[in-house]
Amino acid sequence: MKKTLIYIVVAAILLGLFVYKITSNKEEQKVVVAEVAKQVDKINVNVVTASRSDIDTDYSANGTFIPKAETNLSSEIAGRVISVLVKEGSRVGAGQVVATIKKDAIEVDMTQAQNNLQNAIIDNQRYENAFKTGGVTKQQVDNSRLQLKNAQAAVRAQGVRVNNATVRAGISGTINKRLIEPGAVVSPGTPMFEIVNINTVKLSVLVDESQVGRIQLGQVVKINVNVLPEDSFAGKITFIAPKADASLNFPVEIEVANNGQLKAGMYATAIFKTNHGAETQNMLTVPADAFVNGVSSGQLFIVDNGAAKMIKVTTGKVYGDKVQILAGLNGGEQVITSGQINLNDGSKVNIVK
Q1: Between 175 and 42, where is the model more confident?
Q2: pTM to 2 decimals?
Q3: 3-state secondary structure of 200
Q4: Which of 7, 63, 101, 154 has the most neighbouring CB atoms within 10 Å?
Q5: What is the structure's pLDDT at 164?
């Protein structure tokens, strides 16, 4: 009997403990649920603290080298190629003979044109003498003069054809491509050679609209070449496009003297000094990603008492991924850098980082 009573008491105690535990867990769950409910109404965001720092004000732009001069040399006449005097990689000077085209038929035409010219000279002289004595009319003399001019023009035209049978390089440079072989039949416009001059190369880059006003023609620019990290190069700005492209970037060309190491097509970076020689400047900046609808909008969200607050700022120059702030921030504000698409002015936020 006593054992039974003991069992009953122990069971009651265990039951009481079990009930207490369940009740306690329910209270804890209520607290957790309440906290989660609070967080559901908040939007997760990342923030940075607006602060002043020393910013590298040099502006860099990437691009590729292009030849200072290049030309595609084409045939001026129709005919069969007799000889090709250069090969790919050959260096040529302007006016140098690089190929010859058969000109037998052209020379026959030249002989005929010269004979016609001699006849025109004789006929014109006869008409001129006859006109002095009244033997021919003024119209006949004029016609003879016209025939003489036409004959002279025909000789000059054949002379051009004869000259074009000797193909000459239009610029000094290197044969980059040879597109013909001896025996090939060409016609006017047939490509024959590609000639490039890389004694001086040009680095072609695109400069952002916010920076183009800070560079000028003749300015010396440092050049870093990716495949030649140990070497230093410099060039001068020779061209700044007067019109931007569709992305509001301005094409800029920088001429660089070639010591033989640079090749057209190499990738390089131009470093523009844009702050009167100073390498850094202390300024208040925020990330470009923080702006709503782009940097040009000047709109930012900051965290104010746990809520998002939209503000308007005045921006300065863009330095890489950082934007200079001229007015609208004092420094120390928590600026939201992600999650803006889900925010409205006054939205509750939860700072993730």
Answers
A1: 175
A2: 0.54
A3: strand
A4: 101
A5: 83
